[in-house]
Amino acid sequence: MTRVAVAIITNKKHQVLIARRPAGKVMEGCWEFPGGKVELGETPEECLVRELKEEMDLTVMAGRFISEISYDYDWGEVKLLAFETHIVEGEPQLLEHDAMVWVSLEGMGDYGMTPADEPLIEDLLQWIREKTSFEGETKG
Ligand SMILES: Nc1nc2c([nH]c(=O)n2[C@H]2C[C@H](O)[C@@H](COP(=O)(O)OP(=O)(O)OP(=O)(O)O)O2)c(=O)[nH]1
């Protein structure tokens, strides 16, 4: 089983950053959350700091754990671990993807996300509803 840490990065409009896997990779053309395989001796949070620097030249801080999803591909099982992730410094660059977009979770259905992401998006919808209603309350 491969553990994969994925970054849920939101902007002020509550849109989430997704990026497209380039030609030549498995699932080429699929959209995904930035992130990657957790290496030996590394926490998922450390993995996100490393991967976001490598993939997008972003300095990030992994925050709260949101949800995990296991999915069986024909080449093996992946477990996606999703964390709320904050940009500390930088603008996202396309170093390993061929496109990126900020999109609302409701609009994500229009993008062909990787199959493992589909059940995760359900959890994220619940998470963002709770988050935005909480923010609404604290704003008075
Ligand atoms: N980053 C990311 N990976 C995902 C998502 N959904 C999903 O099934 N995956 C899979 C694709 C890959 O098999 C794995 C992530 O590994 P990776 O990005 O480090 O590796 P890769 O396959 O792109 O390339 P490689 O390093 O194995 O050559 O998890 C997602 O939303 N984000």
TrEMBL record:
Domain of life where this protein originates: Bacteria
Keyword list, A-Z: DNA damage, DNA repair, DNA replication, Hydrolase, Magnesium, Metal-binding, Mutator protein
Entry-linked InterPro entries: Mutator_MutT, MutT-like, Nudix_hydrolase, NUDIX_hydrolase-like_dom_sf, NUDIX_hydrolase_CS, NUDIX_hydrolase_dom
Keyword Transcription: no
Family matches, as Pfam families: NUDIX
Residue ranges annotated for the Nudix hydrolase domain, each copy included: 1-126
Cofactor(s) listed: Mg(2+)
E.C. designation(s): 3.6.1.55
GO molecular function: 8-oxo-7,8-dihydrodeoxyguanosine triphosphate pyrophosphatase activity
Catalytic activity reported: 8-oxo-dGTP + H2O = 8-oxo-dGMP + diphosphate + H(+)
NCBIfam families: mutt (TIGR00586)
Family assignment from sequence similarity: Belongs to the Nudix hydrolase family.
Listed name of the protein: 8-oxo-dGTP diphosphatase
Species assigned in the record: Anoxynatronum sibiricum
